[in-house]
Design brief:
By secondary structure, the chain is of the alpha/beta class. The chain contains four helices and eight strands; from the N terminus they run H-E-H-E-E-E-H-E-E-E-E-H. It has two domains: 50 residues; 103 residues, Immunoglobulin-like (Sandwich).
Length: 162
C-alpha cells in the first residue's frame, strides 16, 4: 500500500510540474531594464508570451514605475489613478490571462520617450524554452524536471510499482 501512495505522489508531481517548468521569466529590456529612450516594442517583437510567464521590470525606484493600463491609456501615455501601479524597482508581473497587455512608466515624459510596452499573451501552452539569457532559469528547471522523470521511471521499474 505504501508503494501505491508513493506512486500517487509521483503521478501528481508529473502532472503539475510541466506547467511550472515551461513558464518563462522575461526581464523587460534585458540588461537595459525599464528605462527611457529604449524601444520596448522592438525588444518584444520576436518573443512569444504565454499565460503563466512573468514579466520582470527592473529599474531604480523612485525614478520610474510601472502602470498596467488599457489600450487607450497606453496610446495616450496616461497613467490613470485607478490603474494598477508597481513601484518596487524589481516588479514581477505574472501573465495570468490571454490577450493584449499594456504597461507604461507614469513619470512625466517617460512614456512619450518610449518607456512603454505592449504585448499579446497567448492562451496556448508554451513550448519547451530554449536556453537563453532571458529563459535560463526555466531551462535549468526543465532539466531538473527531466531528471526527476527519469528517476521516477527508474523507481517504478526497480520497485515494480504499477
Amino acid at each position: 500500500m505504501a508503494s501505491s501512495n508513493h506512486f500517487n505522489g509521483f503521478a501528481i508531481a508529473v502532472i503539475l510540474l510541466p506547467a511550472i517548468a515551461f513558464a518563462t521569466e522575461y526581464v523587460v529590456g534585458d540588461d537595459k531594464g525599464w528605462a527611457i529612450n529604449f524601444d520596448y516594442q522592438a525588444w518584444a517583437k520576436d518573443k512569444v508570451f504565454y499565460v503563466g510567464d512573468t514579466l520582470v521590470f527592473n529599474y531604480i525606484a523612485p525614478n520610474h514605475d510601472v502602470y498596467k493600463v488599457n489600450g487607450t491609456a497606453f496610446n495616450d501615455c496616461i497613467a490613470p489613478p485607478d490603474a494598477e501601479k508597481f513601484t518596487s524597482g524589481n516588479d514581477k508581473i505574472e501573465l495570468k490571462t490571454a490577450g493584449n497587455k499594456w504597461y507604461l512608466c507614469g513619470k512625466s515624459g517617460h512614456c512619450s520617450t518610449g518607456q512603454k510596452l505592449s504585448i499579446t499573451v497567448s492562451n496556448s501552452s508554451a513550448p519547451q524554452p530554449a536556453p537563453s539569457s532571458s529563459s535560463a532559469p526555466s531551462a535549468i528547471f526543465v532539466s531538473v524536471y527531466q531528471v526527476f522523470i527519469a528517476l521516477t521511471a527508474a523507481f517504478v521499474v526497480v520497485n515494480h510499482v504499477v
